[in-house]
């Protein structure tokens, strides 16, 4: 077999592995988003992605209560499809303003840029909801049916 044919076969194998890895990573992302939605039905969610140096990417998800208290922070960073979300419980319980101050001090790192982007997304959504006069997210209330 010619050298170029082996190269094409290797390229096809690596491409297929990347497709499978991307599918697995997207499934993980959807699972995290679903779990957050089930755990926190009210409040705000901000997600942001930042491309770091040499291709290292970061995705941050910040969940805040309606009174802007942080409930959850998840960050995925890495150069490959094997990256997974890591939870940051140290931020939970603090306000969005506190986390904004922290991220502005350390904004050089891609992780904090992504967190700052997620907070900015929450702020934009809150402003837009207030401007339109609608609640950002209506809390889910269980319906009780009485037997007839």
TrEMBL record:
<protein>
    <submittedName>
        <fullName>Uncharacterized protein</fullName>
    </submittedName>
</protein>
<dbReference type="Pfam" id="PF06923">
    <property type="entry name" value="GutM"/>
</dbReference>
<dbReference type="InterPro" id="IPR009693">
    <property type="entry name" value="Glucitol_operon_activator"/>
</dbReference>
């Amino acid at each position: 077999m010619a050298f170029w044919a082996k190269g094409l076969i290797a390229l096809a194998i690596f491409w297929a592995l990347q497709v499978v890895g991307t599918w697995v990573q997207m499934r993980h992302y959807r699972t995290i988003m679903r779990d957050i939605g089930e755990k926190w039905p009210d409040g705000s969610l901000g997600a942001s992605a930042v491309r770091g140096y040499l291709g290292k990417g970061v995705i941050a998800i910040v969940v805040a209560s309606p009174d802007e208290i942080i409930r959850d922070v998840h960050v995925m960073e890495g150069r490959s499809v094997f990256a997974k979300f890591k939870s940051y419980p140290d931020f939970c319980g603090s306000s969005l303003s506190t986390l904004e101050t922290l991220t502005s001090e350390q904004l050089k790192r891609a992780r904090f840029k992504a967190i700052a982007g997620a907070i900015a997304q929450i702020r934009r959504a809150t402003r837009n909801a207030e401007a339109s006069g609608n609640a950002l997210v209506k809390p889910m209330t269980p319906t009780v049916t009485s037997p007839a």
